[in-house]
Write a structure and sequence with these properties.
By secondary structure, the protein is of the alpha/beta class. Helix content is 44%, strand content 14%. Helix 4 links the parallel strand 5 and strand 6.
């Protein structure tokens, strides 16, 4: 299977992901070797935490596209952001400081791990009402959501896309994240699995082992949706069914 990874931090020098050109290229090479053929780069967006790097991200994106084009004719690359929630986020979107995923209606958004349930639901409602379709990054890490299946189902029913990190599923981020991720898979609530890759050591761009596990445990058809079909639909700005 050719994987589509729509959450990663491979662009160097713009957030807490790849810190230099060599690492950026190495992570891209590793993703391709692992079977990924579609990548949407999603550098963090929060000017207060990471600085304003809209232009720098575009430059790094163009540079990595040139590198990839010389080596991988079948690798498709796109650009977005991972928005860290803030009261000013709609103004960032309006100003173009924050990008949606490949210019689509879909917006990757994250929160602090210890965020309150009220903050999550209020912020996602605000984005939905503004016409965006939020993709909740690494849904399994938010402690206020773990075990609250009623709220998770309500978010899903409202149109929020639930994304899981592959390393969480495999247990690399602790027992709590692993249990939460697998509970969502077991109930068919997860919509996307992504690498959330940052580097080659601590957070590598590895999807194949997780895909094999999900396909065996939860079914090949569901795995195909999570690792390829749904991410591709997002990048084409198409509707993702929830049934």
């Amino acid at each position: 299977m050719n994987y589509a990874d729509m959450h990663c931090h491979m662009l160097y020098g713009v957030d807490d992901g790849a810190q230099d050109r060599e690492t950026s290229r190495a992570v891209l090479d590793a993703a391709y070797a692992d079977g990924t053929r579609t990548i949407c780069f999603t550098p963090h967006c929060h000017p207060g935490y990471y600085g304003e790097h809209t232009d720098e991200a575009l430059q790094r994106y163009a540079e990595l596209r040139t590198y990839a084009a010389e080596r991988y004719s079948d690798l498709a690359l796109y650009l977005g952001n991972e928005l860290h929630d803030d009261p000013a986020c709609l103004s960032w979107l309006d100003a173009g400081t924050c990008r949606t995923l490949n210019g689509s209606r879909y917006l990757l958004v994250d929160f602090s791990d210890d965020v309150s349930l009220y903050t999550i639901t209020k912020a996602l409602d605000q984005l939905l009402n503004a016409g965006y379709t939020p993709v909740l990054a690494h849904t399994e890490v938010y402690r206020s959501l773990r075990g609250d299946m009623w709220t998770i189902c309500s978010l899903s029913d409202s149109g929020v896309i639930l994304q899981l990190d592959s390393q969480s599923i495999m247990g690399d981020f602790g027992l709590g994240a692993k249990r939460a991720a697998r509970r969502l898979l077991r109930h068919g609530l997860a919509d996307i699995v992504a690498s959330d890759a940052h580097d080659m050591d601590r957070r590598p761009p590895r999807l194949s082992a997780c895909h094999a596990f999900v396909a065996e445990k939860y079914g090949a058809a569901y795995a195909g949706l999570l690792f390829a079909d749904n991410p591709q639909r997002i990048l084409r700005d198409e509707y993702i069914g929830k049934d």
